[in-house]
Design brief:
two-stranded antiparallel sheet
Length: about 180
């Protein structure tokens, strides 16, 4: 009698294992990843003492997660693989776009100047402007605010060449996009 009970229990356990495997394979269990990640891994650990304590790592279970600066010993907990097809945006690139630094004992992404410049170029073009060069005051950097008076009003001897956003008629560049005057 006991051997039949053990056989029943064994078959039920095997059946449950097969059911979980099938549900996992078809992606049904993926919805459990985020709650498990929060419960098991907790909030991303950003504590550090030196730059080498920090890495860029995905902090959620979504395949399009570009990651954040976290402690090298922290890992997300995503036990169920996501087999769905996604079209993810292109992530920023360490070294080219940012560096990972330990600042005030917190891991952080520090954006490079070339990345910030590319973002201003894109903002200019996406808001209808054209990128040009102009003589502006030596204190002005690339893409000065053309809505204010003065950044490009110095004498040639007190000026240098910078990139500017030449906005359509009736608009000016406010430092982040072309806006109505």
């Amino acid at each position: 009698m006991k051997s039949k009970e053990f056989l029943k229990i064994g078959l039920i356990i095997i059946g449950l294992i097969i059911l979980v495997a099938v549900l996992n394979y078809i992606g049904v269990l993926v919805v459990l990843n985020e709650p498990l990640n929060t419960l098991v891994a907790g909030s991303p650990n950003k504590n550090c003492n030196v730059d080498s304590d920090c890495v860029v790592r995905g902090t959620s279970c979504h395949p399009c997660d570009c990651g954040d600066a976290v402690n090298k010993n922290w890992y997300p907990s995503c036990p169920f693989p996501d087999t769905s097809k996604y079209f993810c945006k292109m992530c920023e690139s360490p070294v080219n776009d940012f560096q990972v630094k330990c600042i005030e004992n917190r891991c952080q992404k520090v954006w490079t100047e070339s990345y910030k410049l590319r973002q201003k170029e894109l903002a200019c073009m996406n808001s209808g402007g054209t990128i040009k060069t102009s003589l502006c005051c030596k204190s002005a950097s690339d893409f000065p605010n053309s809505c204010l008076i003065g950044a490009c009003g110095c004498a040639p001897g007190s000026s240098h060449e910078v990139k500017i956003c030449d906005c359509p008629e009736g608009k000016c560049f406010d430092g982040s996009k072309c806006v109505s005057r």
